[in-house]
Amino acid sequence: YKKDKFAYSLGVNPIGGGGSAGFENGLPSFEQMVAVLPGMLYLNGLTDENHMDYSVKSNFDGSSLNWGVQFNATYSLTEMLSLSLGFRYIYAKNTYTGYLKEVMVNPFHPLNPNGAGNMVAAPVFFNALATAATGAANLMQPIIDGGGGAYTLDQLVLAGFLTQDEANQLAGGLGDDYHSDLTAAEVQGKYFSNAGVSAGYAAATSDKDVDAAQTGHGIAPIIGVNMKFSDKFNLAVKYEHKADITLTNETVVDGTGMFTDGAQTPSDMPSLLTVGVGVRPIEKLNINAGFHMYFDKNANYGKQLNGEFVENSEVMDGNSIEAAFGLEYMVTDKILVSAGYLMTKTGANDKYHSDLSHSLNTSSIGLGGKYMVNENIGINLGFMKTMYQGYTKSFTGYQEEYNRDAMVIAVGIDYKF
Question: Of 34, 36, 52, nearest to 99 (Cα)?
């Protein structure tokens, strides 16, 4: 709304996130706890190198959307110079749903209920180990109660408290943890410990679900200046202050331990400097260029290293920048066509990237058209294609590759009162 030297504007639009993603086979961060099982079983003598398979059913859906409600007031100091002041209220929400279930392994072990080397539900196998370890520990209790707790298994055999077969089974059940000078009390302690570990693995490999949301809000002041040097040349500069946002978990169920109910995560919107230049060399042609800098290093995106939140200076080597260029041409008084290009360069380093959150360099091209139905109504059609530059992150024994592409088709209507 404009009157005299003042102009006022109100806008409501997504300013961050705005997307959702579904992963039919889950994410590496979900499956990682399962993928290590065969190696763990092998190292503990519970299978051989020919029986190290696993399977799991996993699914993950996530969404992220930051709504912005913005108000601005602008005052024209002169015909050339205008100043603006405003603020944006931001409401942020992320959602996460998914599951990890039916974890299967194929240990070559006599306690595999389905037969050594066959696929079996991991919780069933680990519970069988826990039951057997508890039984072995309980076998030692009468001996310990009878005063034999300080004797080794060999001494207990000589004293007639154990048969040789029983001693061999107790020793063999501990694998590399057994040595001949262990006392009966120490053997029992190791079996109780093994039972606890196995029960823990049974719980860790049981079916798990996630249904959680994160919400938060913040306010960002905005200042701007516009300089209209002539009808053919315009320069504008805008600075958006950082919005401090803290997301709070609202968790229905969390079997993974990743989304504790009530836990808080920083998720700032960074300060942003934008510069735009418009040139009209001829009446029908409008040329625009823009430069944007996101001050990522001064914000906090809630990234964690070793389980602790860290400042962005730890995970960002520099600020992200964008450069844009666009053309508009009036074919007739009713038809306008346009084309544009946008380049984005991120400042994220290797510590930033994960399967849940990563930042990639991009190149985007756009095409558009507008048809003026009359002097008050215009119909817009737009197309954009974004190409992402892939990124590979190396871990011990494996790699994760992040890549994607995106295509946007948009239809809009302009109405001028």
Answer: 34
Amino acid at 56: V
Q: What is the pLDDT of residues 293-327, one digit of tens each?
A: 999 999 999 888 887 888 898 999 999 999 999 99
Collect contacts of 183-187 with beta carbons under 8 A, ≥24 apart. 183/149, 183/150, 183/151, 183/152, 184/140, 184/143, 184/144, 184/148, 184/149, 184/150, 184/151, 184/152, 184/153, 184/156, 185/140, 185/144, 185/149, 185/150, 187/140, 187/153
φ, ψ (nearest 5 deg) of residue 110: -65, -20
> How far apart, in whole angstroms, are the C-alpha atoms of residue 6 and residue 273?
24
Instruction: Output DSSP code: residue 184.
Output: H
Check if the beta carbon of residue 97 is closer than 8 Å to that of residue 211: yes
Residue 213 scores a pLDDT above 80: yes
CB 179, CB 128: distance < 8 Å: no
Cα 359 to Cα 62, 133, 202, 204, distances in angstroms? 16, 47, 36, 31
Matching residue, tokens 């039919």: 24
> Which stretch of DSSP H or E encloses residue 325?
strand 320-330
Q: What is the pLDDT of residues 53-65, one digit of tens each?
A: 999 998 888 899 9
Q: Please say if the pLDDT value at position 393 is more than 70.
A: yes
Coil, helix or strand for 1? coil
Mean pLDDT of 341-348: 96
3-state secondary structure of 240: strand
Which residues have a Cβ under 8 Å from the Cβ of 330 and sit 6 or more positions away? Answer: 283, 284, 285, 336
